[in-house]
Amino acid sequence: MPEHxxxxxxxxxxxxxxxxxxxxxxxxxxxxxxxxxxxxxxxELAQRVVLLDAAVDALQREIEExxxxxxxxxxxxxxxxxxxxxxIRIASDLERVGDLAKNVGKRxxxxxxxxxxxxxxxxxxxxxxxxxxQLKEVLDAYAAKDPVRxxxxxxxxxxxxxxxxxxxxxxxxxxxxxxxNISVCTHLLFCAKxxxxxxxxxxxxxxxxxxxxxxxxxxxxxxxxxxxxxxxxAFPGRLQG
Amino acid sequence: MPEHxxxxxxxxxxxxxxxxxxxxxxxxxxxxxxxxxxxxxxxELAQRVVLLDAAVDALQREIEExxxxxxxxxxxxxxxxxxxxxxIRIASDLERVGDLAKNVGKRxxxxxxxxxxxxxxxxxxxxxxxxxxQLKEVLDAYAAKDPVRxxxxxxxxxxxxxxxxxxxxxxxxxxxxxxxNISVCTHLLFCAKxxxxxxxxxxxxxxxxxxxxxxxxxxxxxxxxxxxxxxxxAFPGRLQG
Lengths: 241, 241
Fold this sequence. Notes:
The structure is a homodimer.
Chain A lengths: L2 H38 L2 H32 L3 H33 L7 H26 L3 H31 L4 H33 L18 E2 L3 E2 L2
Antiparallel strand pairs in A: 1-2
Function (chains A, B): Plays a role in the regulation of phosphate uptake.
Protein name (chains A, B): Phosphate-specific transport system accessory protein PhoU
Organism (chains A, B): Aquabacter spiritensis
């Protein structure tokens, strides 16, 4: 390709990478706000999260379209092509992260004013801190094109999953102890599940960053420790599975 | 393009379309089996669903890679480009459908042998019938490149959402009436949510089919009637929201 074309192509690649980083920042912000809204029972903040998710969706479509057009126009190969494919995949994961944050926001509005012992929220808060750290780390790994950092994020996901599983049991136990907790705990269970799935998307992004830089997919079995969907808890509060 | 190239390109497009239809059939099968496993409490079938999801994931990557390579190689425009973008988007939705079916399968295994009144499952069954009909319809709309059928699917999603919302309340009420129902109902709530989200992916696919054929995105506000995340239910069983 003549010099000027190469330069234009590089500029297009950089522009798309910038958009992905921008989208990551917006998605991260939505998660932070959704979790804070839950902890502080701030329904106004929760409603703002629900509204702002649309901007993240719009960015996803923009990134996808730009990347596809560049692929069609430049016929890139190797690392260049992988960067564009990675942008499409990561934008798709970040769009889901935004949806999950929005759903947490909706549930904060739902449980407004309900009997709502703070200790019930603490477990969700603790898990959220880990998930947000994962999201931040993997977005930094993407910006730095650092596969080692991406693999570290990827390995840590199992910690979040096992935390979710014990939180799941804890919330079920609260429901059994006092039926007044059932409605709030059900919404908290869904919030916890949404946040745990945000962690899964961070793991997807880690796999994409690794593939983008190295050209190899993480062959190793993905770490999985969310046993909650296999977890049963018998009345009264006896733990199984 | 010289004749033979056009023919080769058409063959590539058809091949990718066939793969998407094949993937749709596999994802649909997983949902049917997961729901049947839930209704019949057939844990063997449920375990098969969990295993077979990997094949759907593999097809998604294959479709994505093939479509991207064809875009890079052929520089398609207009309908041809939209068909390839649609294949990438639909494969991504179908991959999520497979994951959601897998999650239902895991929960069937989890609640094995638990106190499990059949009436609790009936609501989920009824909703699943509608969702499966939607999935079947939208896959037919894709195969037939029929935007009218796609729009019909798109409009019907709100019916599933409102059915999910009432099911959500019903299950919460069961939990409050008898704490022995809490563990099973919690898993059924997640199953119902997974199935409702399969309906959302059918709606996404409908939007993609409409875009693929017409080149226009469905501008109209997407029909939304899942109010469950805003639904609260106070003890004892008084309905709100």
